[in-house]
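Re-run with default settings, no changes from the original entry. Doing this only to confirm the output is reproducible before filing.
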Amino acid sequence: MDKLSSNDFIIAKLNIYDYKNDKNGNPQKIKYFMLLDSEYNKIINEYSGELDKYNLLNLFCNIKSRIFINSADTLVSERKPEVSYPSYKLIMEDIFIESEKTLRKYIDELVNLDLIRFDYAGDMIMKNDNGKPIRRKANFTYILFKVGWEEELKHAIILFKNQKRAMGWSFLSKDKEVLADEKRSITQKINMLEKLSKEKNLTQSQIKELRLLKRKQEKWKVEYDEGIDTRKLEEEKLKSENPDKPLFEIYDDMGFDAKAERAYEEEQHINIESIGIND
């Protein structure tokens, strides 16, 4: 640069895309999504609430970057819901929010700003080999706020339930989901008290409360199998029912594009390692 003069004209090509081949061998852009000026302005320039604007923007970008987008030439009959299903844990790790309660405040604020909408399929149950039930809360399904979001989100939830049922899950009725909310609340209180105990001594009432909450938590652990790898169970069931297909093709047929890509990459990695061992 020090050899350039003020009269030199430079043309530079900005390379902001990374590419990788998908399971069909077609190059796909990765690590890229579009943030509109209107979305940015609504959060940074127009929002006047108490939450941190940049955390709010970070969360919106995190959700939007994960949303599936149909290509422009996709037939109407073949279009898939433009939604995403990231877990609380994944979002919190990405944007460094430590509390689920705090994260929910930010999510609700994005709804108030008419940037997103969300819903969830409910609580899921799967029986383990030993007959002990596994209980999980379905991730929220997020969609961008737009005309027709209601029907698209409703369709996405139905599709998600059908996909999960194919993996061996069943869904609880709404009245039984209250127990899961109580369980999550108790887990949050335990984490808060344990964190507080590391910073300073707990009062006698707090110690008593922590013991009581832990007893309740242990009761749930006896009732439900909490430590199981549900992804492994799902994949084993799918492969047993489709023995002639690789996992990424099974996921692709079910409409799980992200899982299909992940399975394809993992299977490719295993094949490469096998070749290395044989060599």
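The chain has one domain: 33-241. The longest strand covers residues 116-120.
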